[in-house]
Amino acid sequence: MHSAWPSLHTTNAVYGTALNFRSALSALGEAVNAPPYLAPPRAPILYLKPRNTWLGHGMPVVLPAGHEAVAMGPTLGVLIGEPATRVNAAAALGHVAGYTIVNDLALPHSSYFRPAIQQQCRDGFCPIGPWVIEPAAVADPGALAIRAYLNDRLCLSCSTAELIRPLPQLIADISEFMTLRCGDLLLVGLPANLPLARAGDRMAIEIDGLGRLENPLLDAGAGSAAGGGAP
Question: What would the pLDDT profile of 104-125 be if each residue is shown by its tens digit?
């Protein structure tokens, strides 16, 4: 069973998770042990994708003026259906209302030490959808293939099996220090070597069993004429 996003669900907040793919953490190399990090993360590293970033399937993303490219962010979105406070991993998936596709866009950047607000929180930088799939229709959220396409050319392939913290543990660890509320959308993380999209490109993310999310990337002038923005 599935329903359209966001018309049938009231989204409360969208939380991204940094460095939760093994490849993304490995890409830091020895830098993870040097200042300002000093050690690998011991708890989930979260960031916000505020409401101005939310965008629906098919809607144009506007490349900010003065920038040549945006990093695509193919990831699984997990919709919370029951409040989760200090839940254990064994019970964590019982708090999930469904799954969707997210393109967690950002201007290319290399630091995870300070929130990259200017890079991650631009208008339209979080396309979501087109569906929310009920948990019963997803056999194993820990083994979902994710693919990113530019102009129908496959440019990245990964799987939720590559997460450092699998989804149940991620929910449990986050709920130790904050409550995940009904309507929150949790993004499980991004792999390394994210593809770069440029104005005129057509971006698409596929996740097995969840469908395909597509959005064109326009330059700033065309975007203004098209009226791109959050729903």
Answer: 999 987 666 567 889 999 999 9
